[in-house]
Amino acid sequence: MLAALVLQFMERMPDRQAAEACSFDLRWKLALGMEADEPAFHPTSLVKFRERLLAHGLEQLGFEAVLEQMSAAGYLPKRTRQRLDSTHIIGLVSHMTRLDCVRETLRLALEDLAQIENLPRPAAWALWWERYVESRIDYKSSGDILRLKMSQAGLDARDVLNWVNGLPPEIRQGEAVRLLQRVFDENFETRHDGTVEQSRARPAGAVQNPHNPDAQWSYKSTMKNKEWVGHKVQVAETVEAAPRSTGEPTKNVITAIVTQSAPESEKAGMAAVLKEQRQLGLEKPEVIYADAGYVSGPSMAKASAEGFTLMGPALPSAKRGVYPSEAFEVNVERRSAVCPAGKTSTQCARMKAAKTGRITYRFEWVGCCDGCNLKAECLHKGERGRMLRVNEHHTFSQTRWQLMRTAEFKKDMHHRNGIEGTHSELVRGYGLRKARYRGEKKVRLQNYLIGAACNIKRWCRRVTWEAKQAMVGIESIAKPMAVPA
Ligand code: SF4
User: Fold this and answer.
1) For residue 342, which atom of ligand 1 is closest to its CA?
2) 365 lines ligand 1 (CB under 6 A)
């Protein structure tokens, strides 16, 4: 069944078609080790098998099995250089306005509560039922009316929640009730006088559609459409050391395909990728090539402490209209910094933020700046001396900024670019861009199956090419030498 699922994703087929292929397609039968006349299964068996995988937390089983086999066959080296990048996944979810979302969540909660036998209902129940279960909103209504309906929905949601809070815990803890509480908190604020008001903006990770709360809104400044509702996936693959010859298939292996919620950061994604690779028994990579979203002083310091190099461009420091920290030569260990005029700092203070525990260093040039020619570029209006604040891992950023100016760095970073091609391969060849299922767990399973399908196809191409090369070698030996005329 697992092999049938992987083949299904390799061929981008729906369940029914995959079950038919298992019955009638001899290529599938051969691949699955079935007899030619062996009956296949009903399409719903695939659904049930996926549910069993999810129930046992075995979403990664197929992906893991393929990696193990590739490693055993010598197609996955132990210590590798890898590249990493994320791409977005559009969730299986229809667009809803905030009013739609609140009303639909109320409807789901009321219908759920209506199924509980002998539940005493409050006087307002008939009104709620009529408003949210039996009625549809007229979207041609004016903005004022729609705003009124939103306020009404907020008040009703609060009243429903107040009523449910007095009920036994098994009702209060129900999924639909918890979702209503979440949607209410994300969309409304309760004032001191008890009135309910719509909040200005929804927080990151807010529910966009109650039928798929895991599909969340996010945006990427590098994307054309910029925003999407759904999920995110981190893809890591090995990087070939030597360039390929013409027609040679790739040797690269996808080593991690980690699904995240859409607003999660790239740095959290990289930590999840490394954790998963560790769980799969893969050694830590020598180098990870990534874009600026993954690279910062702290993340480079962490990578160095863990024994690998995080290779990628470090973002410049925030612009303040005067010389940024890149213009200074800072030595955090010696607590000294040299300014663009070549003067060494006179004071250095180490500071620790009480809330976050973040450590920063503040350098000052007391009495150095009065007669300086670079004052206009270095100091803000009214400032008498320069002050520079950097984080404790500034040395890593500084070294990277210097490295970024070299030709070797630009050449080395070509290794990262191939990940865009892999994303394209996964999107066009295996349907990575759109979620087939609702809920993050199921999307995670989908992505693992896609990763497994892609690795198998790459592996097959490689084996076929190597066999062909061996044949060419034998033929060239067997062929008689051409005799010149
Ligand atoms: S203004 Fe002060 S800190 Fe800035 S370059 Fe001149 S001496 Fe150095």
Assistant:
1) 8
2) yes
Nearest residue by C-alpha to atom 2 in ligand 1: 369
Residue 463 included in any domain? yes
**Residue 434 — φ and ψ, nearest 5°?**
-115, 135
Q: What is the mean pLDDT of residues 34-54?
A: 93
C-alpha 467/C-alpha 186 separation (Å) is: 59
Over residues 286-302, the pLDDT tens digits come to 999 999 999 999 999 99
Out of 167, 198, 229, pick the residue that ends a domain: 198
Same-domain check for residues 87 and 106: no
* Calpha distance 461→88 (Å, rounded): 27
Residue 341 Cβ contacting ligand 1 at under 6 Å: yes
Decide: 427 in ligand 1 pocket, CB within 6 A.
no
Which atom of ligand 1 is nearest the CA belonging to 373?
A: 6
User: Which domain range does residue 250 map to?
Assistant: 60-93+217-313+413-485
- Nearest atom in ligand 1 to the alpha carbon of residue 378 is 4
Inside any domain, residue 397:
no
C-beta 329 within 6 A of ligand 1: no
Q: Give the CATH number, domain containing residue 449.
A: 3.30.420.10
N residues, the chain: 485
Residues 6 or more apart in contact with residue 85 via CB below 8 angstroms: 234, 235, 290, 291, 416, 419, 420, 423
The pLDDT tens digits of the residues spanning 210-240 come to: 999 999 999 877 666 678 999 999 999 999 8
CB of 311 within 6 A of ligand 1: the answer is no
